[in-house]
Amino acid sequence: MFESLSDRLSQTLRSISGNARLTEDNIKDTLREVRMALLEADVALPVVKSFIEQVRERAVGQEVSKALKPGEQFLKIVNETLTQVMGEAQEPLELKGEPASILMAGLQGAGKTTTVAKLARFLREREKKKVLVVSTDVYRPAAMDQLQTLAGEVGVDCFPATPDQKPQAIVAAALQEAKIKFYDVLLVDTAGRLHVDEEMMGEIKALHQTLKPSETLFVVDAMTGQDAANTAKAFNEALPLTGVVLTKADGDARGGAALSVRQITGKPIKFMGMGEKTDALEPFYPDRVSSRILGMGDLLSLIEEAERTLDKGKAEKLAKKVKKGKGFDLEDFREQIQQMKKMGGMSSMLEKIPGMGNMAKLAEQQGPMKEMGKMEAIINSMTPWERQKPELLNGSRKRRICEGSGTQLQDLNRLIKQHKQMQKMMKKMTNKGAVANMMRGMQGQMPPGMGGGGPMGGMGGGGFPPRF
Protein backbone atom coordinates (compact mmCIF):
# COMPACT_ATOMS: atom_id res chain seq x y z
CA MET A 1 0.00 0.00 0.00
CA PHE A 2 1.31 3.47 -1.01
CA GLU A 3 4.69 1.92 -1.95
CA SER A 4 5.78 4.68 -4.35
CA LEU A 5 4.95 7.50 -1.94
CA SER A 6 6.42 5.63 1.02
CA ASP A 7 9.71 4.94 -0.80
CA ARG A 8 10.12 8.53 -1.95
CA LEU A 9 9.21 10.16 1.37
CA SER A 10 11.25 7.72 3.47
CA GLN A 11 14.33 8.32 1.33
CA THR A 12 13.88 12.11 1.40
CA LEU A 13 13.25 12.34 5.14
CA ARG A 14 16.05 9.90 5.99
CA SER A 15 18.53 12.35 4.47
CA ILE A 16 17.44 15.15 6.81
CA SER A 17 16.53 13.25 10.00
CA GLY A 18 20.20 12.60 10.85
CA ASN A 19 21.17 16.26 10.67
CA ALA A 20 22.28 17.82 13.95
CA ARG A 21 21.31 21.25 12.66
CA LEU A 22 18.53 22.26 10.28
CA THR A 23 18.72 25.41 8.20
CA GLU A 24 16.17 27.13 6.04
CA ASP A 25 18.07 25.90 2.99
CA ASN A 26 18.03 22.16 3.79
CA ILE A 27 14.40 22.41 4.96
CA LYS A 28 13.57 24.13 1.65
CA ASP A 29 15.35 21.39 -0.36
CA THR A 30 13.60 18.64 1.58
CA LEU A 31 10.17 20.23 1.19
CA ARG A 32 10.76 20.52 -2.57
CA GLU A 33 11.38 16.76 -2.67
CA VAL A 34 8.32 16.09 -0.47
CA ARG A 35 6.21 18.28 -2.80
CA MET A 36 7.38 16.30 -5.86
CA ALA A 37 6.69 13.01 -4.09
CA LEU A 38 3.11 14.07 -3.26
CA LEU A 39 2.41 15.33 -6.79
CA GLU A 40 3.76 12.10 -8.29
CA ALA A 41 1.46 10.21 -5.90
CA ASP A 42 -1.46 12.03 -7.60
CA VAL A 43 -2.37 14.07 -4.53
CA ALA A 44 -4.56 17.06 -5.44
CA LEU A 45 -2.55 20.28 -5.90
CA PRO A 46 -4.49 22.36 -3.29
CA VAL A 47 -3.83 19.59 -0.73
CA VAL A 48 -0.11 19.55 -1.58
CA LYS A 49 0.17 23.34 -1.26
CA SER A 50 -1.63 23.37 2.10
CA PHE A 51 0.46 20.46 3.40
CA ILE A 52 3.81 22.00 2.42
CA GLU A 53 2.83 25.37 3.91
CA GLN A 54 1.80 23.80 7.24
CA VAL A 55 5.07 21.83 7.50
CA ARG A 56 7.16 24.88 6.51
CA GLU A 57 5.53 27.12 9.12
CA ARG A 58 6.24 24.65 11.91
CA ALA A 59 9.69 23.60 10.65
CA VAL A 60 11.24 27.06 10.40
CA GLY A 61 9.81 28.11 13.76
CA GLN A 62 11.06 27.56 17.31
CA GLU A 63 9.68 24.01 17.40
CA VAL A 64 12.59 22.58 15.39
CA SER A 65 15.41 25.01 16.15
CA LYS A 66 15.18 24.39 19.92
CA ALA A 67 14.80 20.60 19.64
CA LEU A 68 17.64 18.32 20.83
CA LYS A 69 17.35 16.30 17.60
CA PRO A 70 16.05 18.69 14.92
CA GLY A 71 15.96 16.06 12.16
CA GLU A 72 13.74 13.74 14.19
CA GLN A 73 11.55 16.67 15.19
CA PHE A 74 11.10 17.53 11.51
CA LEU A 75 10.01 13.93 10.77
CA LYS A 76 7.54 14.17 13.67
CA ILE A 77 6.07 17.37 12.16
CA VAL A 78 5.65 15.69 8.75
CA ASN A 79 3.96 12.70 10.40
CA GLU A 80 1.56 14.87 12.43
CA THR A 81 0.68 17.07 9.42
CA LEU A 82 0.09 14.00 7.24
CA THR A 83 -2.23 12.61 9.90
CA GLN A 84 -4.06 15.93 10.13
CA VAL A 85 -4.59 16.04 6.35
CA MET A 86 -6.24 12.60 6.47
CA GLY A 87 -8.50 13.41 9.40
CA GLU A 88 -6.53 13.13 12.67
CA ALA A 89 -8.67 10.44 14.36
CA GLN A 90 -10.58 7.34 13.24
CA GLU A 91 -14.29 8.10 12.95
CA PRO A 92 -16.54 5.10 13.67
CA LEU A 93 -19.96 4.50 12.15
CA GLU A 94 -22.85 6.23 13.87
CA LEU A 95 -25.49 3.54 14.11
CA LYS A 96 -28.62 5.38 15.20
CA GLY A 97 -32.20 4.14 14.90
CA GLU A 98 -33.94 0.78 15.00
CA PRO A 99 -32.71 -0.40 12.63
CA ALA A 100 -29.72 1.82 11.87
CA SER A 101 -29.60 2.16 8.09
CA ILE A 102 -26.57 2.69 5.86
CA LEU A 103 -26.88 3.88 2.24
CA MET A 104 -23.96 3.02 -0.06
CA ALA A 105 -23.38 5.31 -3.06
CA GLY A 106 -20.72 5.43 -5.79
CA LEU A 107 -19.83 5.03 -9.44
CA GLN A 108 -20.06 1.77 -11.34
CA GLY A 109 -17.02 -0.46 -10.86
CA ALA A 110 -15.96 1.10 -7.55
CA GLY A 111 -16.80 -2.13 -5.69
CA LYS A 112 -20.02 -1.13 -3.87
CA THR A 113 -21.63 -4.57 -3.78
CA THR A 114 -18.47 -6.28 -2.50
CA THR A 115 -18.03 -3.47 0.05
CA VAL A 116 -21.61 -3.98 1.28
CA ALA A 117 -20.75 -7.65 1.95
CA LYS A 118 -17.45 -6.74 3.64
CA LEU A 119 -19.14 -4.14 5.84
CA ALA A 120 -21.93 -6.59 6.72
CA ARG A 121 -19.31 -9.12 7.83
CA PHE A 122 -17.44 -6.44 9.80
CA LEU A 123 -20.65 -5.42 11.64
CA ARG A 124 -21.69 -9.03 12.31
CA GLU A 125 -18.29 -10.31 13.53
CA ARG A 126 -16.71 -7.29 15.23
CA GLU A 127 -19.74 -5.24 16.32
CA LYS A 128 -22.00 -8.28 16.98
CA LYS A 129 -24.88 -6.78 14.97
CA LYS A 130 -27.77 -8.55 13.29
CA VAL A 131 -27.50 -7.33 9.67
CA LEU A 132 -29.89 -7.29 6.70
CA VAL A 133 -28.63 -6.32 3.22
CA VAL A 134 -30.69 -5.30 0.19
CA SER A 135 -29.88 -4.37 -3.41
CA THR A 136 -31.75 -1.59 -5.24
CA ASP A 137 -29.67 -2.01 -8.41
CA VAL A 138 -32.40 -2.87 -10.94
CA TYR A 139 -30.17 -2.02 -13.92
CA ARG A 140 -27.03 -4.16 -13.73
CA PRO A 141 -27.66 -7.79 -14.73
CA ALA A 142 -27.31 -10.21 -11.82
CA ALA A 143 -26.50 -7.42 -9.33
CA MET A 144 -29.13 -8.73 -6.91
CA ASP A 145 -27.94 -12.31 -7.34
CA GLN A 146 -24.36 -11.21 -6.61
CA LEU A 147 -25.38 -9.61 -3.32
CA GLN A 148 -27.48 -12.66 -2.40
CA THR A 149 -24.44 -14.92 -2.95
CA LEU A 150 -22.07 -12.65 -1.02
CA ALA A 151 -24.56 -12.34 1.86
CA GLY A 152 -24.57 -16.14 2.15
CA GLU A 153 -20.76 -16.18 2.24
CA VAL A 154 -20.54 -13.65 5.09
CA GLY A 155 -23.44 -15.10 7.08
CA VAL A 156 -26.03 -12.31 6.88
CA ASP A 157 -29.59 -12.16 5.49
CA CYS A 158 -30.42 -10.64 2.12
CA PHE A 159 -33.85 -9.09 1.49
CA PRO A 160 -35.30 -10.59 -1.73
CA ALA A 161 -35.97 -8.15 -4.56
CA THR A 162 -36.50 -8.36 -8.33
CA PRO A 163 -35.40 -6.05 -11.19
CA ASP A 164 -39.04 -5.24 -12.13
CA GLN A 165 -39.55 -3.41 -8.78
CA LYS A 166 -38.94 0.30 -8.19
CA PRO A 167 -35.85 1.07 -6.04
CA GLN A 168 -37.89 3.16 -3.58
CA ALA A 169 -40.44 0.36 -3.15
CA ILE A 170 -37.59 -2.12 -2.46
CA VAL A 171 -36.09 0.13 0.21
CA ALA A 172 -39.45 0.77 1.90
CA ALA A 173 -40.21 -2.98 2.04
CA ALA A 174 -36.71 -3.85 3.31
CA LEU A 175 -36.95 -1.19 6.02
CA GLN A 176 -40.29 -2.59 7.15
CA GLU A 177 -38.86 -6.13 7.22
CA ALA A 178 -35.85 -4.94 9.27
CA LYS A 179 -38.16 -3.31 11.82
CA ILE A 180 -40.49 -6.31 12.14
CA LYS A 181 -37.63 -8.83 12.55
CA PHE A 182 -35.53 -6.59 14.85
CA TYR A 183 -32.43 -6.24 12.69
CA ASP A 184 -29.78 -3.91 14.13
CA VAL A 185 -28.51 -2.66 10.76
CA LEU A 186 -29.95 -2.38 7.23
CA LEU A 187 -27.30 -2.01 4.48
CA VAL A 188 -28.59 -0.68 1.15
CA ASP A 189 -26.64 -1.26 -2.08
CA THR A 190 -27.50 1.25 -4.84
CA ALA A 191 -27.05 1.33 -8.61
CA GLY A 192 -23.84 2.80 -9.98
CA ARG A 193 -23.30 4.72 -13.20
CA LEU A 194 -20.27 5.25 -15.40
CA HIS A 195 -20.33 8.96 -14.54
CA VAL A 196 -22.22 11.41 -12.36
CA ASP A 197 -25.56 12.17 -14.06
CA GLU A 198 -28.86 13.86 -13.11
CA GLU A 199 -30.96 10.68 -13.37
CA MET A 200 -28.65 8.79 -11.01
CA MET A 201 -28.54 11.64 -8.51
CA GLY A 202 -32.33 12.05 -8.63
CA GLU A 203 -32.86 8.36 -7.88
CA ILE A 204 -30.39 8.21 -5.00
CA LYS A 205 -31.81 11.42 -3.48
CA ALA A 206 -35.26 9.79 -3.50
CA LEU A 207 -33.81 6.66 -1.83
CA HIS A 208 -32.16 8.83 0.79
CA GLN A 209 -35.46 10.60 1.48
CA THR A 210 -37.27 7.25 1.94
CA LEU A 211 -34.56 5.63 4.04
CA LYS A 212 -33.34 8.61 6.13
CA PRO A 213 -30.08 6.73 6.81
CA SER A 214 -27.85 7.28 9.81
CA GLU A 215 -24.84 6.87 7.49
CA THR A 216 -24.46 7.69 3.77
CA LEU A 217 -21.13 6.27 2.62
CA PHE A 218 -19.48 7.06 -0.70
CA VAL A 219 -17.58 4.08 -2.10
CA VAL A 220 -14.66 5.10 -4.32
CA ASP A 221 -11.80 3.31 -6.07
CA ALA A 222 -8.48 4.45 -4.53
CA MET A 223 -6.71 3.64 -7.82
CA THR A 224 -8.33 6.69 -9.45
CA GLY A 225 -6.12 9.00 -7.36
CA GLN A 226 -7.24 12.60 -6.95
CA ASP A 227 -10.21 11.92 -9.28
CA ALA A 228 -11.61 9.92 -6.36
CA ALA A 229 -11.70 13.08 -4.25
CA ASN A 230 -13.28 15.13 -7.05
CA THR A 231 -16.03 12.52 -7.61
CA ALA A 232 -16.69 12.35 -3.87
CA LYS A 233 -17.04 16.15 -3.86
CA ALA A 234 -19.64 15.98 -6.68
CA PHE A 235 -21.65 13.37 -4.78
CA ASN A 236 -21.38 15.37 -1.57
CA GLU A 237 -22.99 18.36 -3.29
CA ALA A 238 -26.03 16.22 -4.13
CA LEU A 239 -26.16 13.96 -1.07
CA PRO A 240 -25.43 14.60 2.63
CA LEU A 241 -22.48 12.16 2.75
CA THR A 242 -21.24 11.14 6.20
CA GLY A 243 -18.09 9.32 5.12
CA VAL A 244 -16.01 7.62 2.43
CA VAL A 245 -14.90 4.02 1.86
CA LEU A 246 -11.71 3.65 -0.20
CA THR A 247 -11.68 0.37 -2.15
CA LYS A 248 -8.67 -1.36 -3.75
CA ALA A 249 -6.31 0.50 -1.38
CA ASP A 250 -4.00 -2.54 -1.38
CA GLY A 251 -3.30 -1.95 -5.07
CA ASP A 252 -2.85 1.82 -4.72
CA ALA A 253 0.91 2.30 -4.74
CA ARG A 254 0.55 6.09 -4.92
CA GLY A 255 -1.84 7.10 -2.13
CA GLY A 256 -3.29 10.22 -3.80
CA ALA A 257 -6.91 9.38 -2.94
CA ALA A 258 -6.27 8.78 0.76
CA LEU A 259 -4.42 12.08 1.08
CA SER A 260 -6.91 14.15 -0.94
CA VAL A 261 -10.41 12.93 -0.02
CA ARG A 262 -10.70 14.40 3.47
CA GLN A 263 -9.43 17.87 2.62
CA ILE A 264 -11.40 18.24 -0.65
CA THR A 265 -14.74 16.85 0.63
CA GLY A 266 -14.52 17.58 4.34
CA LYS A 267 -15.80 14.02 4.90
CA PRO A 268 -13.83 11.39 6.84
CA ILE A 269 -12.51 8.18 5.33
CA LYS A 270 -14.16 5.52 7.50
CA PHE A 271 -12.93 2.29 5.90
CA MET A 272 -10.32 0.96 3.45
CA GLY A 273 -10.79 -2.14 1.29
CA MET A 274 -7.49 -4.05 1.40
CA GLY A 275 -8.15 -7.01 -0.90
CA GLU A 276 -10.78 -9.15 -2.59
CA LYS A 277 -11.65 -11.37 0.38
CA THR A 278 -14.74 -10.50 2.44
CA ASP A 279 -12.65 -9.92 5.59
CA ALA A 280 -10.38 -7.42 3.80
CA LEU A 281 -11.94 -4.25 5.20
CA GLU A 282 -10.09 -2.10 7.74
CA PRO A 283 -11.28 0.91 9.73
CA PHE A 284 -9.28 3.92 8.53
CA TYR A 285 -6.89 5.26 11.19
CA PRO A 286 -5.15 8.39 9.80
CA ASP A 287 -2.29 8.19 12.31
CA ARG A 288 -1.58 4.55 11.48
CA VAL A 289 -1.75 5.11 7.72
CA SER A 290 0.59 8.10 8.04
CA SER A 291 3.00 5.95 10.05
CA ARG A 292 2.94 3.28 7.32
CA ILE A 293 3.50 5.84 4.55
CA LEU A 294 6.59 7.17 6.34
CA GLY A 295 7.94 3.63 6.87
CA MET A 296 7.43 3.80 10.63
CA GLY A 297 5.27 0.66 10.87
CA ASP A 298 1.87 0.07 12.43
CA LEU A 299 2.21 -2.12 15.51
CA LEU A 300 -1.29 -1.36 16.84
CA SER A 301 -2.93 -2.79 13.70
CA LEU A 302 -0.64 -5.82 13.87
CA ILE A 303 -1.60 -6.51 17.50
CA GLU A 304 -5.33 -6.06 16.77
CA GLU A 305 -5.06 -8.37 13.76
CA ALA A 306 -3.28 -11.01 15.84
CA GLU A 307 -5.91 -10.83 18.59
CA ARG A 308 -8.68 -11.17 16.02
CA THR A 309 -7.27 -13.94 13.84
CA LEU A 310 -5.09 -16.13 16.05
CA ASP A 311 -6.79 -19.07 17.73
CA LYS A 312 -6.11 -18.61 21.45
CA GLY A 313 -7.43 -22.09 22.26
CA LYS A 314 -4.97 -23.79 19.90
CA ALA A 315 -2.11 -21.64 21.20
CA GLU A 316 -2.86 -22.61 24.82
CA LYS A 317 -3.21 -26.28 23.85
CA LEU A 318 0.21 -26.20 22.12
CA ALA A 319 1.81 -24.45 25.12
CA LYS A 320 0.49 -27.13 27.51
CA LYS A 321 1.65 -29.90 25.16
CA VAL A 322 5.18 -28.48 24.93
CA LYS A 323 5.32 -27.89 28.69
CA LYS A 324 4.48 -31.55 29.33
CA GLY A 325 7.42 -32.52 27.11
CA LYS A 326 5.26 -34.15 24.42
CA GLY A 327 7.15 -32.34 21.68
CA PHE A 328 6.20 -30.29 18.66
CA ASP A 329 5.07 -32.47 15.75
CA LEU A 330 4.34 -31.66 12.09
CA GLU A 331 0.63 -31.26 12.85
CA ASP A 332 1.61 -28.38 15.17
CA PHE A 333 3.96 -27.01 12.50
CA ARG A 334 1.09 -26.96 10.00
CA GLU A 335 -1.08 -25.08 12.51
CA GLN A 336 1.61 -22.37 12.80
CA ILE A 337 1.74 -21.98 8.99
CA GLN A 338 -2.05 -21.66 8.81
CA GLN A 339 -2.08 -19.03 11.58
CA MET A 340 0.50 -16.94 9.71
CA LYS A 341 -1.52 -17.20 6.49
CA LYS A 342 -4.57 -15.90 8.37
CA MET A 343 -2.62 -12.77 9.24
CA GLY A 344 -1.88 -12.04 5.58
CA GLY A 345 1.50 -13.71 5.41
CA MET A 346 5.07 -12.66 6.13
CA SER A 347 5.19 -9.43 4.08
CA SER A 348 1.88 -8.15 5.52
CA MET A 349 3.20 -8.65 9.05
CA LEU A 350 6.64 -7.16 8.36
CA GLU A 351 5.33 -3.94 6.82
CA LYS A 352 3.54 -3.18 10.11
CA ILE A 353 6.75 -3.54 12.17
CA PRO A 354 8.74 -0.27 12.51
CA GLY A 355 11.83 -0.22 10.30
CA MET A 356 10.91 -3.44 8.50
CA GLY A 357 9.27 -1.93 5.38
CA ASN A 358 12.17 -2.93 3.11
CA MET A 359 12.18 -6.41 4.63
CA ALA A 360 8.50 -6.74 3.69
CA LYS A 361 9.39 -6.08 0.04
CA LEU A 362 12.22 -8.62 0.16
CA ALA A 363 9.85 -11.13 1.73
CA GLU A 364 7.43 -10.60 -1.14
CA GLN A 365 10.17 -10.98 -3.77
CA GLN A 366 11.63 -14.10 -2.19
CA GLY A 367 8.19 -15.69 -1.95
CA PRO A 368 8.17 -17.15 1.59
CA MET A 369 4.40 -17.64 1.45
CA LYS A 370 4.89 -19.84 -1.62
CA GLU A 371 7.37 -21.88 0.41
CA MET A 372 4.91 -22.11 3.28
CA GLY A 373 2.21 -23.29 0.88
CA LYS A 374 4.60 -25.98 -0.32
CA MET A 375 5.31 -27.05 3.28
CA GLU A 376 1.60 -27.25 4.02
CA ALA A 377 1.01 -29.40 0.91
CA ILE A 378 3.78 -31.81 2.00
CA ILE A 379 2.33 -32.16 5.53
CA ASN A 380 -1.18 -32.64 4.08
CA SER A 381 0.15 -35.60 2.04
CA MET A 382 1.29 -37.40 5.20
CA THR A 383 -0.75 -39.76 7.34
CA PRO A 384 -1.54 -38.67 10.94
CA TRP A 385 1.08 -41.16 12.17
CA GLU A 386 3.76 -39.70 9.85
CA ARG A 387 3.00 -36.18 11.09
CA GLN A 388 3.50 -37.33 14.68
CA LYS A 389 6.67 -39.35 13.97
CA PRO A 390 8.50 -37.73 10.99
CA GLU A 391 11.79 -39.28 12.11
CA LEU A 392 10.43 -42.70 11.04
CA LEU A 393 9.87 -41.69 7.39
CA ASN A 394 11.69 -44.10 5.07
CA GLY A 395 12.51 -43.80 1.35
CA SER A 396 9.24 -45.26 0.01
CA ARG A 397 7.11 -43.10 2.31
CA LYS A 398 9.04 -39.99 1.28
CA ARG A 399 8.53 -40.80 -2.43
CA ARG A 400 4.77 -41.24 -1.85
CA ILE A 401 4.53 -37.94 0.04
CA CYS A 402 6.44 -36.04 -2.67
CA GLU A 403 4.26 -37.49 -5.44
CA GLY A 404 1.10 -36.66 -3.48
CA SER A 405 2.15 -33.06 -2.85
CA GLY A 406 3.79 -32.39 -6.23
CA THR A 407 7.12 -31.53 -4.58
CA GLN A 408 10.74 -32.71 -4.71
CA LEU A 409 12.61 -34.85 -2.19
CA GLN A 410 14.83 -31.89 -1.24
CA ASP A 411 11.68 -29.91 -0.32
CA LEU A 412 10.61 -32.68 2.08
CA ASN A 413 14.10 -32.99 3.58
CA ARG A 414 14.26 -29.22 4.09
CA LEU A 415 10.88 -29.29 5.85
CA ILE A 416 12.05 -32.08 8.18
CA LYS A 417 15.24 -30.13 8.96
CA GLN A 418 13.29 -26.94 9.75
CA HIS A 419 10.85 -28.92 11.89
CA LYS A 420 13.75 -30.31 13.94
CA GLN A 421 15.02 -26.77 14.51
CA MET A 422 11.54 -25.72 15.64
CA GLN A 423 11.44 -28.68 18.05
CA LYS A 424 14.74 -27.58 19.60
CA MET A 425 13.43 -24.05 19.98
CA MET A 426 10.24 -25.29 21.67
CA LYS A 427 12.30 -27.33 24.15
CA LYS A 428 14.36 -24.26 25.01
CA MET A 429 11.15 -22.37 25.72
CA THR A 430 10.42 -24.68 28.65
CA ASN A 431 13.77 -23.83 30.28
CA LYS A 432 15.04 -20.68 31.94
CA GLY A 433 15.76 -17.77 29.59
CA ALA A 434 13.05 -19.04 27.25
CA VAL A 435 12.52 -15.76 25.44
CA ALA A 436 16.22 -15.18 24.79
CA ASN A 437 16.62 -18.74 23.51
CA MET A 438 13.58 -18.40 21.28
CA MET A 439 14.87 -15.16 19.73
CA ARG A 440 18.26 -16.76 19.03
CA GLY A 441 16.53 -19.73 17.43
CA MET A 442 14.27 -17.58 15.25
CA GLN A 443 16.99 -17.02 12.64
CA GLY A 444 16.90 -20.61 11.49
CA GLN A 445 13.13 -21.00 11.34
CA MET A 446 12.34 -18.82 8.33
CA PRO A 447 11.46 -20.46 5.02
CA PRO A 448 14.23 -20.58 2.39
CA GLY A 449 14.98 -17.04 1.29
CA MET A 450 13.98 -15.60 4.67
CA GLY A 451 16.42 -17.07 7.19
CA GLY A 452 19.81 -18.48 7.98
CA GLY A 453 19.59 -21.32 5.47
CA GLY A 454 18.59 -19.30 2.43
CA PRO A 455 20.23 -16.73 0.18
CA MET A 456 19.15 -13.95 2.56
CA GLY A 457 20.75 -15.48 5.64
CA GLY A 458 22.41 -13.07 8.05
CA MET A 459 22.46 -9.30 8.01
CA GLY A 460 24.86 -9.12 5.08
CA GLY A 461 22.30 -10.79 2.79
CA GLY A 462 19.45 -8.55 3.88
CA GLY A 463 17.81 -11.21 6.06
CA PHE A 464 16.62 -11.02 9.65
CA PRO A 465 19.09 -9.87 12.28
CA PRO A 466 19.87 -12.62 14.82
CA ARG A 467 17.90 -10.71 17.49
CA PHE A 468 14.79 -8.56 17.11
Q: Can you put this structure into words, describing what you see?
A:
The protein is of the alpha/beta class and 468 residues long. The chain folds into three domains: 3-86, Four Helix Bundle (Hemerythrin (Met), subunit A), CATH 1.20.120; 100-296, P-loop containing nucleotide triphosphate hydrolases (Rossmann fold); 303-461, Orthogonal Bundle (434 Repressor (Amino-terminal Domain)), CATH 1.10.260. The protein has 22 helices and eight strands. An eight-stranded mixed β-sheet has the order 3-2-4-1-5-6-7-8, sandwiched between helices. Strand 2 (131-135), helix 7 (143-154) and strand 3 form a beta-alpha-beta unit. Helix 6 runs parallel beside helix 7 (143-154) and helix 18 crosses helix 20 (395-405). The two termini are 24 Å apart. Residues 432-468 have low confidence and may be disordered.
